[in-house]
Amino acid sequence: MVVTGAGGIGLAVARRLGAGRPIVLADRDVAHLRHGAALLRHDGHVVHEVPTDVAEPAAVAHLAATAQQLGVPRVIVHTAGVSPVQAPPARLVAVDVVGTALMIDAFADIVEPGAVMVCIASIAGALTPLPAHDENLLATTPTKDLARLTILDPKHLDGSRAYGVAKRANQLRVQAAAVPWGRKGARIVSVSPGIVATPMATAEFESPSGSVMRQMIEASALQRIGTPEDIAAVVDFVAGPNAAFLTGIDVIADGGTVAAMRTVGASLEDLVSVG
Ligand SMILES: NC(=O)c1ccc[n+]([C@@H]2O[C@H](COP(=O)([O-])OP(=O)(O)OC[C@H]3O[C@@H](n4cnc5c(N)ncnc54)[C@H](O)[C@@H]3O)[C@@H](O)[C@H]2O)c1
């Protein structure tokens, strides 16, 4: 299997799905990558570390080629990403939008029947409705031209808007890839977590949007933060044989946060402006 992102969700996914198969683990932060790989090896996993910046086409191509050399990748889970406090809007577009598109393209070229790709999006995508015209452009624009779309122009984006548009783009890209992947006998799904206790969420809690996040958890149906294991369990399901008829969809795993926000009629932007 291939896992991008040696962070909270990536490592939980690797632990849950990685037994009995080599794990190709990719991250831009080499110290982080080494540490994550060491933790997995300590648990008995076989790990190949591939330093990779998913925003770089050559690095993503190298990752796919390395995975292919080790055997046919059966499960590819793309969790690498940045949030608004971790990167300015231009970098967020490069990593979260273009990086995800590069990953989908690179692995589309090498997948074989039975393979599954899971891209981690976010409920921020579900909470960022966009005009149909923009959704169509985000879904279908060739990856090399994506960053030039007006809707992704950093001049018009603050951090939280950039993240919401990026995560909506992830869901749309996965939907648009379903047919070409299906023609190869492969599936592709996105999973949209709510707020999950990882280093990314910790960084966001310490930022001005931390109070909005606390309000979202408090308003949610289950009134708790998610664990990385909650998300790994959903990834395990969508990547597994019981989900053989699922492709091109987004699965929201958020303890009922979106449900609560839709019920009370508050949008993410309402909460952000309140917060
Ligand atoms: N934690 C949450 O509350 C939450 C909620 C919704 C969605 N998500 C999404 O889940 C995914 C995983 O997040 P996490 O919570 O595990 O965060 P995390 O910060 O623990 O892990 C993210 C990892 O991605 C790596 N990374 C960042 N930029 C990269 C790049 N350009 N190339 C390669 N690796 C890069 C980081 O070094 C880090 O190891 C992200 O896509 C995030 O947007 C997280």
Structure report:
It is a single chain. α1 packs across α10, α4 packs parallel to α7 and α6 packs across α7. With 275 residues, this protein is an alpha/beta fold. The protein has a single domain, classed as Rossmann fold, CATH 3.40.50. Helices cover 50% and strands 12% of the residues. It starts with a strand and ends with a helix. β4, α4 and β5 form a beta-alpha-beta unit. The protein is globular and about 50 Å long. It has a 7-stranded parallel sheet with strand order 3-2-1-4-5-6-7, with helices on both faces. It has 12 helices and 7 strands. The structure holds nicotinamide-adenine-dinucleotide. Nicotinamide-adenine-dinucleotide binds next to α1, α4 and α8.
Descriptors:
275 residues, alpha/beta, Rossmann fold, 12 helices, 12% strand, binds nicotinamide-adenine-dinucleotide
Explain briefly what this protein structure is.
By secondary structure, this protein is an alpha/beta fold. The chain has one domain: NAD(P)-binding Rossmann-like Domain (Rossmann fold, 3-Layer(aba) Sandwich), CATH 3.40.50.720.
